[in-house]
Design brief:
single chain, 93 residues, mainly alpha, two-stranded antiparallel ribbon, 30% helix, globular
């Protein structure tokens, strides 16, 4: 089984520290969210991005989980992480 990937690896957005699009779009808050480190087996907020305020989706800055939940719950990243984590899945930090 391949190792568990963080959202920026799954989406290949390039917004992680040192990523290709970091200079243009800035570093994604999920890639530096220390309190979320380790949640759902991820690095920083990389496997709980739906709970991190200010992530980009579809090129638009997103708000809180309450504001972006419909798009996040149907996102391939959310669905993949939920399936990979099974009973250990965490919806929030």
């Amino acid at each position: 089984m391949p190792s568990k990937q963080n959202c920026w690896e799954i989406k290949q957005c390039g917004r992680e520290p040192g990523g290709a699009k970091m200079g243009d779009l800035g570093v994604c808050p999920a890639a530096v969210d220390s309190p979320a480190n380790g949640v759902n087996s991820g690095s920083k907020g990389g496997r709980i991005c739906w709970a991190v305020v200010g992530t980009l989706c579809g090129g638009k800055k997103q708000g809180t989980f309450a504001e972006k939940r419909l798009s996040c719950l149907s996102c391939e990243v959310f669905e993949r992480i939920e399936a990979e984590e099974g009973d250990s899945f965490q919806l929030k930090v």
